[in-house]
Design a protein that fits this description.
There is one protein chain. The chain is of the alpha+beta class. The protein folds into 2 domains: 39 residues; 150 residues, Roll (Nuclear Transport Factor 2, Chain: A). 39% of the residues lie in helices and 26% in strands. The relative contact order is 0.18.
Length: 206
């Protein structure tokens, strides 16, 4: 006869899951996940309002500048290395901005650059392959595939994760708003056996 887990055991499993997922992030050299990083929080909604240009991109009537602005983003992430970030991050991002991904949120370029550089420390290689962008009003949507190999990995190991970035540019062609959407469990959390087991168990019950 199979015993069903008690509410207490479920709570313990959830607590262990949170713990080991946090450890997974720390062990891969990334910052701990912050809550509500894909939810429409007040900060997110305020940033949308602050970067709004009446629904029309400031670059809409300047095709060459639009293509150049998007290309700078592509070039920055195509070589996600400390050297490339240090040399080009200020060409891509405005001094004041709203940036949010699955781990952190920033409102200025300096801490964002520091975060990006820290994120390269555990990486042997990391690059992003972008599909053609889509513009809807003032928003640019850039679908991408992240290809990553960690220092601790075997030389031939390479993981991939799909994502998309929602971006807004200012009149100078610099990013003033960016929201990234992707699933860190595909690359990061699954590397820790217990966290991977917990993730599979949760997904199997959905």
């Amino acid at each position: 006869m199979r015993c069903l887990p008690s509410p207490l055991s479920r709570r313990c499993a959830v607590a262990l899951g949170v713990f080991f997922i946090g450890q997974a992030v720390l062990m891969t050299g990334c910052s701990s996940p912050a809550p509500k990083l894909t939810a429409p929080t007040d900060a997110y909604l305020k940033a949308l309002a602050a970067t709004s240009s009446d629904g029309v991109s400031p670059l809409a009537d300047r095709p060459a500048d639009e293509v150049a602005a998007v290309q700078r983003v592509v070039d920055l992430y195509a070589d996600f290395s400390e050297k490339n970030i240090r040399e080009h991050v200020s060409e891509v991002y405005a001094d004041r901005l709203f940036f949010r991904d699955g781990f952190k949120q920033f409102t200025s370029v300096e801490p964002l650059a520091a975060y990006m550089i820290r994120s390269t420390e555990p990486l042997r290689r990391c690059t992003f392959e972008f599909e053609p962008f889509i513009r809807r009003g003032e928003d640019y949507f850039l679908p991408w595939t992240m290809i990553v190999s960690l220092n601790r990995d075997k030389e031939d190991r390479e993981d991939r994760a799909l994502g998309i970035s929602r971006i807004r540019f200012n009149e100078d062609g610099k990013v003033v708003f960016q929201q990234d959407y992707w699933d860190p469990t595909d690359v990061l959390y699954s590397r820790i056996p217990i966290a991977n087991w917990l993730i599979r168990k949760v997904k199997s019950r959905l």
